[in-house]
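Re: [help] complex structure
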Amino acid sequence: MGLDFSILPEYSDYFLTGTLWTLALTALSMFFSISGGILFAVLQLNRHAIIRWPTSFIAWLFMGTPLLLQLFLVYFGLVQIGIDLNAFVAGVIALSLHFAVYNSDIIRSAIVAVDSGQVEAARSLGLSNFQALRKIIVPQAVANVTPALGNMMIALLKESALVSVIGVMELTLSAQRAISDSFRPFEFYIAAAAIYYIINLGLEQAVHFAERRTARYR
Amino acid sequence: MSENLIEIRGLKKNFGDLAVLKGIDMNIRKGQIVALIGASGSGKSTLLRTINQLEEATAGEIWFDGQLVNQDLPHRAREKHLNQLRREIGMVFQHFNLFPHLTAIENVTLAPTMLKLQNKSDALTSGKALLDKVGLADRIDHYPSQLSGGQKQRVAIARSLAMSPQVMLFDEVTSALDPELVGEVNRVMKQLAQEHMTMIIVTHDLRFAEDVSDHVVFLADGLVVEEGPPAQIFADPKHELTQSFLKQVF
Ligand SMILES: Nc1ncnc2c1ncn2[C@@H]1O[C@H](COP(=O)(O)OP(=O)(O)O)[C@@H](O)[C@H]1O
Ligand SMILES: [Mg+2]
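Output below.
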C-alpha cells in the first residue's frame, strides 16, 4: 500500500477540532504555567522558610515524577476525593503545574541574576519590596528568561500530546481517530506532525518578537 | 542656626566581626552641604547607607526630621516606617542603578506615580521639568543604555529629586565616570547646593568638595577624625590623619 495524502481533506474536521483543542490546551497551560511560575519563584525567594518549604516540596514533587503520572493523578486520582474534572480541565491543570515548576526555576535564577543595586535604588525611593519586585525585578528577569522560557513553552506544546491518553480530542488523538477510521497511520501522523511544526514556528516567532522587544533597552 | 535635619548618635555598624563604623556622631542642618571624605574603606558608603537603612545599624541612633530612623519595630511596621522615610531621603549611587528597562522619563516618574504622590500627567510634567533641569530635555525617551555615564547619573539625580526629598545622599557619584563627564554631574550638584538642598556628598574629588560644601567631615577607620568648614579642613587640617590623607590625595 503506497502513500496517499489525497485522503487527508476528507478528514479535515478531525484536524480542525484537534488543532483547536491543542491550541486551547497549550495557550491556557502556557498562561497558567507562566503565572504560576512567577508566583512559585516569588514564594521560593520569601524570607520565611515556612513559605519556602511547601513550595520547594511541590517543586520537588513535580520535577521528580513523570508528567503522565501527574496527569493520571489529577484526572483519575482526584475523582476519588470527590473532584471530578473533565479531561480538558485536568489536562490544563497537570500541564500548568508541571511546567509552572520548571518555569519557576528559570524565573527564580533570573530574578537572582538581577543586580542587587536595582532593588536598592527602588527601595531608596520608598518602594516596598513587593513594588520593587513587580516593577523593577520581574520585568528585567522576564527579559532575561525569554529565550529559556520560550523553549519551555515549545516543550509544553509537544507534551500536550500526552493529554490524548485521558481522552481530550487534541491533535494526536484526533489523528488516531482518523487512523482507526481510515487505516492510514503514516499519512495522518505525518499530517499531525506538520501541524505541530507549524504551531511551533508560530511560537518561535512569538519568542523572537518578545526577545526583540526586550532587546530594545540592552 | 537652623535646626538639625539629621542627627547621628553613637552609630556603630558591624559586618559580622568587622567593625566598620565605630561610634559616629554627626549633625546635619537643613540646607547644609556636607562633604564626607576619607580613604577607601573608611566607612563612608556604610554611613550613608545606614542613614536610609539600606544597612541596619548595629548600635546608636539616627534621627531624621525628629523621627528615630532605626526604630525597633515588627517587620511590617518597620518596612512601612522605612518606606515613608526613604521618600524623604534621596540617594544617588556610584553606578547609577538606573532601571534599564525604563526610559529616562519612566525612571523619573515611576516612584511618584507608584506611591501615588502624583497622578500620571502631573508626574510627567514635573518629570520633564526635572530632566530639563539636569540638562536632558532632549533625552527623555532614551533608555539608559543609550546614554553616556554622565547623562545616566543626571537621570539618577532627577529620579531622586522627583520624590521631593528633604536631603540628598551622593555616594561617589562621579567615580565611575570618564574624567570629561565629571563636570556635568558636579554642575548639577552645585546647582542643587545653590538652591539650598540639604546634601551629604561622599567624594574623592576634593577640589569639588571644597568648592561645593559648607562643612567637611573627615572619616578614618570608622570614626569622625576631624570636621569643620572647608577652608579650615583643606588649608589648615588639625589632625595628623587628616594632614596625611590630604597630602596623599591632593
Ligand atoms: N555588605 C558588606 N559586607 C561585609 N563588609 C562590608 C560590606 N560593605 C562594606 N563592607 C566593608 O566595610 C568597610 C567600609 O566600606 P565602605 O563603607 O564601602 O567604605 P568607603 O565607602 O569609605 O570606601 C570595608 O572594609 C568594606 O569591605
Ligand atoms: Mg564607598
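The mean pLDDT of chain A is 91.
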